[in-house]
Amino acid sequence: MSVYRSKQVTVNNLSWTAIAPVGDCHSLKLRNDDTAINLLKRSDSADATSQEVITPGNEVRIEAVGTKGYRLRAGRTLFYVQAASSTITGFQDELT
How much is the mean pLDDT over the chain? Predict the structure, then answer.
């Protein structure tokens, strides 16, 4: 049976915020719900070469497709995010 979880994530421009599943899951999606501010994403918070930009209204998704058991483990950091300016709110959605 699949379970869907959603949690609000508040991100500022002063520090990198670790994004990790709340529970074991197969899929994690982070959506930038701001209307004007970009969300910066890095696989390594100290490595600017790993940076991507999630523009307002868009999302990033990580999925473990075709595997048995949960591949995205609760509490394990998948990536880091930071607001390009100010503070923004996004939503983290998971599907088990």
Answer: 91
